[in-house]
Specification:
Helix content: over 70%
Order of helices and strands: HHHHHHHHHHHHHHHHHHHHH
Number of strands: 0
């Protein structure tokens, strides 16, 4: 049987890791958006867009294989597996760096920004240093040492914040100063990552694994197809807006059209912890009902945390965007609200389950289908001269459609009704409860503390929102403390 209490603690560390990473990255964006003008900030964001777009291709799905293979081999063989894959990641990083350097002019022409060519040339050494650092989450989650994920991500992201932001602040430099800092901190992170990857294997004598790279790629390459298609889905709206609406609109779009970070943290934590367990359960041929029970419990716990956050931020989108990026980016709030709709659906973590069941081909085909839809739809939107808001709506609609199709596939594999996979009644009650509390606070704000400044008002409303949720939870039969209770019980022992 799965130790769910252990799962909660493992997921907590991964969630804290994601939170620290997000907090430091959003702080970096908030600072740089104030020091750069919109054109320069747009170029900087385009460099990151290009890097993150090509990253999926050049990693070849390798960071995701750790959580699949390590639970299936001994720790002695695991040591060999980790170093084999890490060496391959370094090789792909070198190729990635070369592609950025020699392809910078072509990329700049495609994105219609001549300045981008120079930025990409300076940025090009970074991939060969950062690619070998990937896979930390899969390694430590496989050995139930997710505490180290939190330490590594927090420390490495803090270093990145310092090295990227400080040169810009101290020297009042351009985006190139931020890239100089990236290069230095990437080298430091490279060394730190290799130290962390050795932690689970201290005192372990390496045993040559029977696992061949051919087997690794037979698992990872189908995921690459899905990743490339997913990349195409995520990058389509950014490409069309970047090319046809200019760097200023792209900057507004980039700062606003993003998933709520807390949702990504929770879903990532869930996937990181569940993937090794699902892989082991399939390997040991555990009854499929154990999959369903574990998955349903996870969904319910995720909804209890995520849905109230989504509803609260929908009601306070403009305030949050202005506090983060200043009044200059108030239009980003519109994209932020549209993007948040996805978070009502993407709490359904189906990828680990599909991967462990060997349904990677279906996963890949669905993403290719979505990619075709969004690129064709985007082309039509450009020719119809629709505004950038239309691309945000298109992106959200297609993402929701893909989630529904993947849910349908899971229901077919388990031979059960798709509606039985999701606790819809519980989801509806959580959303309704959160909306009613938000409406109540809206009227209280107008009549009682409307003159308080934005930050203090937001803090006050957050405290009251949480308090009212907990105080009225019994009326709606929702236990918001179900995630915290196992942790508190362990602390009291």
């Amino acid at each position: 049987m799965i130790n769910n209490k252990g799962n909660t603690h493992q997921a907590l560390w991964v969630g804290l890791s994601s939170f620290s990473s997000f907090a430091l990255s959003i702080l970096s964006a908030a600072i740089l958006s104030r020091y750069f003008d919109k054109e320069e900030y747009g170029t900087y964001k385009q460099i990151l867009y290009v890097y993150n777009t090509l990253l999926i291709i050049f990693t070849a799905g390798l960071p995701r294989v750790f959580a699949y293979f390590l639970p299936r081999v001994s720790i002695e063989e695991g040591k060999d597996v980790v170093w084999k894959i890490s060496k391959m990641l370094f090789l792909f990083g070198v190729i990635f760096s070369a592609a950025l350097f020699f392809g910078s002019n072509s990329i700049a022409k495609v994105l219609n920004n001549p300045e981008l060519a120079l930025g990409l040339k300076y940025f090009s050494p970074i991939p060969m240093l950062l690619l070998p650092t990937l896979g930390i989450e899969g390694i430590f989650s496989s050995y139930k040492k997710t505490f180290y994920i939190a330490i590594y991500n927090t420390f490495s992201r803090l270093l990145m914040l310092i090295f990227i932001v400080l040169p810009v602040i101290i020297f009042k430099g351009s985006y190139l100063y931020a890239i100089y800092g990236w290069i230095v901190v990437s080298l430091i992170t490279f060394v730190i990552a290799y130290f962390f990857k050795s932690i689970p294997f201290r005192g372990v004598n390496k045993k040559v694994s029977t696992l061949k790279m051919k087997e690794v790629f037979s698992y990872s390459l189908p995921l690459v197809g899905a990743s490339i298609a997913g990349l195409a889905i995520r990058s389509a709206d950014q490409f069309y807006i970047s090319r046809y609406y200019g760097t200023e609109i792209f900057a507004e779009y980039s700062n606003g059209f993003m998933q709520i970070p807390f949702v990504a943290m929770i879903t990532k934590a869930t996937s990181t912890v569940l993937m090794p367990q699902f892989s082991k359960m399939v390997h040991e041929k555990v009854d499929v009902q154990n999959f369903i029970k574990l998955w349903e419990r996870t969904l319910y716990k995720s909804a209890i945390i995520i849905y109230p956050i989504v509803v609260f931020l929908l009601f306070h989108a403009k305030t949050i965007i202005v506090l983060l990026y200043s009044e200059t980016y108030i239009k980003s709030a519109n994209y932020f609200q549209i993007a948040m709709v996805v978070n009502f659906f993407n709490i359904i973590v189906f990828a680990p389950l599909l991967f462990s069941l060997g349904e990677t081909k279906f996963y890949s085909r669905i993403h290719v289908f979505g990619a075709l839809l969004i690129w064709v739809g985007g082309y039509i939107f450009v020719n119809l001269s629709l505004g950038p808001i239309a691309f945000a709506v298109l992106s959200v609609s297609i993402t929701v459609l893909l989630i529904i199709l993947n849910m349908w596939k899971v229901s077919k594999v388990f031979n059960i009704n798709v509606l039985n996979l999701v606790p819809l009644k519980s989801f509806f009650m959580i959303i309704l409860h959160s909306i009613l509390i938000s409406i109540l606070l809206y009227f209280l704000k107008n009549y009682l503390w409307g003159t308080i400044n934005s930050l203090m008002g937001l803090i006050l409303e957050t405290i009251l929102f949480v308090a009212f949720l907990i105080l009225t939870s019994k009326i709606f039969r929702i236990d918001y403390l179900v995630v915290i209770k196992p942790i508190l019980l362990k602390l009291n022992k």
